[in-house]
Amino acid sequence: MARMTGRRALFAVPVLLVVTFGAFAIAAASPFDPVKAYAGTAGLTASQENLDQLRANLGVDQPLVSRWWQWLTHALSGDLGDSSVMRQPVTQVIGERLGWSVLLAAVAFVVAVLLGTALGVLAGRRTGGWCDRAISSLAYTLQAAPPFWLGLLAVWLFALKLGVLPAGGLTDTGSTEVTAGQVLSHLALPAAVLAASQLPWFVLYVRQGVADALDEDPVRGARARGLAPRTVLLGHALRSGMLPVLTLIGSRVPELITGALLVETVFSWPGIAAATVEAATAVDFPLLAALTALATVAVLLGNLIADLLYGLADPRVGFDG
To answer: Per-residue b/e over 192-213, b at no fewer than 16 CB within 10 Å?
Structure first.
């Protein structure tokens, strides 16, 4: 495990270099002007001399490679620079928002894994039955629905029509403090929508894995020995059927991040979604590079955790990857 982790850490270094440089290159090719975005309406009446001075102060008058290298050397020492659009240090921007994004993604992911496993087992234990058809139809329907559409539908139904849950935000309107009860009530809808967007993959993978495992010789032998159907299903078939899901956990991280950004936007959740959108549209080089690197690290960690779990669950695989 230590050797695999070390190899992946070494592999992550060139990946992060390429990704952060790509973020600077894409931002440099963007039609948006970071100086005008920073100046706002004042930039409409500012002289060219003032705009050039502002461009120099922001450092966007330097060549692409110089901007990237300067940001990289400062980032290695813990200084991610200042966000021009947020008017704050990048570390502060991320620190204020990352925890809420992690909370949303973690709750949604746990719900998707647990509920997806339960539904997948119900569907896979008797393929072709009414339960399998109903669950599979629901999974394919959710798979085709974009997260933002699910979010808008949830707001219309549960917030506007039924009035049982708040439509967005972190706390109630007019509240001056953040309480656990308010956070939980406001978290319910966005977490449910994000979980629903990830649910189909776990349902379908577990269903297929359980269905295949029930046809394997060891499981048939367990049935022949007279073990209870519940023991055969949960103790033998589910264990074999869960192996593909461990690999799926890592591969779902990129879409989980993308879905979280969309859901945060719909529900005005105070995560990193707004910061990401503003960094992209305002060509905020330091913030954009930091957020891109953070997302890349999350994907690499997700893949590493999935491989480690797979190796622990199936000793035949080992940790040579």
So the answer is: bbbbbbbbbbbbbbbbbbbbbb
Residue appearing with tokens 């913030």:
287
Provide the 3-class DSSP secondary structure of residue 289: helix
Question: Could you tell me which residues are beta bridge partners of residue 82?
Answer: 89
Per residue in 17-48, pLDDT tens?
888 888 878 777 766 666 666 666 665 666 67
What are the sequence ranges of the domains in the chain? 1-85+282-300+311-321, 98-281
DSSP string of 239-253, one letter each residue = HHHTHHHHHHHHHTH
Which residues sit opposite 88 in a β-bridge?
A: 83
As a whole number of Å, the end-to-end CA separation of the chain is: 10
Per-position DSSP letters for 178-212, written without gaps between them: --HHHHHHHHHHHHHHHHHHHHHHHHHHHHHHHHH
Q: Does domain 98-281 have CATH number 1.10.3720.10?
A: yes
Q: Is the model's pTM score more than 0.85?
A: no
